[in-house]
Design a protein that fits this description.
There is one protein chain. The protein has 7 helices and 2 strands, in the order αββαααααα. It has 201 residues and is mainly alpha-helical. It has a two-stranded antiparallel sheet. It is found in: Cell membrane. It is a multi-pass membrane protein.
Length: 201
Amino acid sequence: MTENRRPLGSDLARIAVFAALIIVLGMVTIPLPGGVPITGQTLGVMLAGLVLGARRAPLAVLLVLALAAVGLPVLAGGRGGLGVFVGPTAGYLLGWVAGTIVIGLIAYSGRFTWWRAAIAAVVGGIGVVYLFGIPVLAAVTGMPLGAAALSNVVFLPGDLLKAAAAVVLVVALARAYPRALADRASGRLAPIVTAEAARAS
C-alpha cells in the first residue's frame, strides 16, 4: 500500500470531526438504574477506531474527555466536570481510549475487511471497554465484581448492535471513499486495498 501523506491540519480536522461525532451521539441516551446509561457514544468510539486507526482515534476520545474535564456537558446525559472521572462511569471513559487503540490495531493488522472490522469493534469497542469499566464500577459503588460484571449484561445486546452498525457504516465508507480510512502501516489516512481493486490488479 502506498503511503499517502496528508497535512497535519487534515488529520487534526478528522480528529475534531470524530470528537464532535462522539459528543453528538452522546445525546442518544437511555438512563438505567445504577448510574450507567445506555448511550450512543460508544458507537462513536467504535467508528473513530475503525476510521482513524490506533494513533489518531485515541486523540479524538482524549479531546472529548478534555472538554468534559473543563466542565463542558459533552458526555451522555449532558454530564461534564472532573466528577465524572471519579464516578461509576470513570472506567468506561478510560476504556474508550484503550478501546480505540485496540480497534485500530486489529482493524489494520492486515488488509481492511468487514470481518476484521467486526472483530475489532467487538474486542476493542466492547471487551476492552468492559474490562476497564467493570472494576471501576464495582470499586465506586461497592458492588461485588461479579455483580458488577453481571449488571453489564443488559448493555451487551445494544453494544453488539452498535458494533454491527459501526461495521456497516465503515464498510460503506470504505467503498465510497477509501481515502478516509487509516493506513495500517503508518497510521496515516490513506487508501485501502478493496477486494475489487485486488482482483483488478
